[in-house]
Amino acid sequence: MDKKIEKQLREKLETEKKRLTKDLSAFAKKDPKMKRNWITRFPFLGMNRLHSDESADEVEEYENLLPVEYVLENRLKDIEDALDKVKKGIYGKCELCGKEIEQKRLMVAPEAKTCLRHIKKD
Ligand SMILES: [Zn+2]
């Protein structure tokens, strides 16, 4: 891959990583036990208040945030994987066929793991 383009894509990845980390930090914290795992914070609930209306709202809010956390966390993982590949010098290779991923695809999704050939079949 062209070094200039790789640099550009790496910068995109770094920016996205920062943004996602910031978004996640607003309501989740890093799991100290599992690398790259995030835990949605649930600091407000005392078990003795479980049946009050206020707590019901908190439970609902928590449940609403879980899928958001899941999506952000997985995207962040993909981005960190891509940055690892940049470091190892194997960035931009398709994980399924080993060919170079199309540049136009990487421009839209720099964290892509596979080339466009496989997408249409999925
Ligand atoms: Zn491929």
Automatic annotation (TrEMBL):
PROSITE patterns: ZF_DKSA_2 (PS51128)
Xref: InterPro entries: Znf_DskA_TraR (IPR000962)
Coiled coil: 3-30
The Zinc finger DksA/TraR C4-type domain, residue ranges: 89-116
GO molecular function: zinc ion binding
Keyword entries, A-Z: Coiled coil, Metal-binding, Zinc, Zinc-finger
Name listed for the protein in its UniProt record: Zinc finger DksA/TraR C4-type domain-containing protein
Organism: Candidatus Portnoybacteria bacterium CG_4_8_14_3_um_filter_44_15
Lineage of source species: Bacteria, Candidatus Portnoyibacteriota
